[in-house]
Amino acid sequence: MIRKLIILWALVFSLGSCTKDFETINVNPNAPSAVPLDYLLAQSTLFITGEGGDPGYRSWRTNFIYAAMMMQHMSSVEVGFYRGTVYTFQGDLSAAWFERAYPNSIKNLVNLIELSKKDPKQVNVLSMARILRVIEMGVLTDVYGDVPYSEAGYGALTGVFSPKYDAQKDIYADMLKELEEAGNALSASAYIPKTADLVFAGDINKWKRAANSLMLRFAMRMQKVDAAGAQAWAKKAADRGLMTGIEDSFGVKFANTGAGNNSNPNSWNMFPGGRGIVTADNIQWGKTYIEAMKTRKDPRLGVVSALKSGDKTPEKQVGLPIGTDATMLAALPAPLNARANYSRPAPNMYALENTQFVMTYTESELLKAEAIERGWVTGTAKTAYDNALKAGIKQINSYGGTLTDADAAAYLAANPYPVTGTLDAKMDAIHTEFWMSTASLLQHIESWANWRRTGYPKLTPVNYPGNETNGQIPRRLRYSQGEYGVNPGIDAANARQGADLFTTRMWWDK
């Protein structure tokens, strides 16, 4: 007993004599005091695809409920929830990307950027993070217009918890600058986070080409509002080197670990073990898209679409009419009066391990073809167009297809480039394929953005009773209603951009 007391007093004395080392001796050597940057990079990469607490939440609302429906890739008779098909508003649906991106992906990317700046050896992590931030902010501004940008995600560092809304013109200028600087800084001689890089597994040259192709995307978006700036940036992107093949396509890879962030968010929404919006007949492929695939003899139809029975025979696929509610559907003759009889994404389209594409080689080549036709970039537009169509057919093999070079050649033969046609005819050919390709890879948000700029393909809107656009396809989504009364920047944005409505056009949408 005495021995125990002596030991106890010795411990008390020793603790008292080294209080100055209290923080050191209380550090758990088995727990990291800072999260490794590689982990933060992998997490941030997964987050840009549409995570946010509830797996696939913002992907479901923004990509499917609104963008896919408005672009007539998909349709739903549940018009009270899948509101994009009839152009009506619901606050939590419209604001989902806004409300989930800022506290998740944007905050994490800002944290990663600031941490990696402190170590010159982490220049590749820093550059990748800057590119990822441009991708995320690009979606935000293309969906809503003016948004918090320069101060966004810095609240914990600066104490600014109501970041200002930057003008889209200024956002675009900075995003292009970021892509150029980040691309320049990428270095094959510095540390390369191969395992944490869920896009290119550490291939620095592919990152560089992807940054340049993204630069081309944003340059072309400015075509109507700043032709000189668009031309200068498009030329710079092409001169620096664009994607060279489908292996350069920017896609986030997943490991299929179930309901967490490491499953494809689009797949999670459609997957029967997830949200199950396909197997529950919530969404089907739209009639506009299915008929276009048949008209164009698109071999992707037998890959992307199936009847509920599992039948993928292309000739049997039937798209759900756009703007059709349950009452209207019930009035149709059998078997078209039941939504279970319409085509929907095939099961291979929602495998949880599917890559989620951000930008493809197909898109890069189509934009290059347009830039060539406008005289901004050197080259042959037909060659770029041909490359794009053939690559788009082969890219679907990432989603379970088995299409061949012969399939790609046949599709190109059925949809040749109008070399002697008018500029309008050429733009129609280029951007109709853009619309087709993005639909096949579930890139509906990007398809919507490109359609708003180009007007192709020429879609026929619906004028459903009670819609908020007077029967016109929306030009943007509305801000989070929670911003009002909290962030005065939203009032400045509305004064500068226009009323917070679906019909208000953003800076580049003229």
TrEMBL record:
The keyword Secreted does not apply. This is SusD/RagB family nutrient-binding outer membrane lipoprotein. It comes from Runella rosea. Gene3D superfamilies: 1.25.40.390. Pfam families: SusD-like_2. InterPro entries: SusD-like_2 (IPR041662), TPR-like_helical_dom_sf (IPR011990). Residues 1-19 form the signal peptide. Keywords: Lipoprotein, Signal.
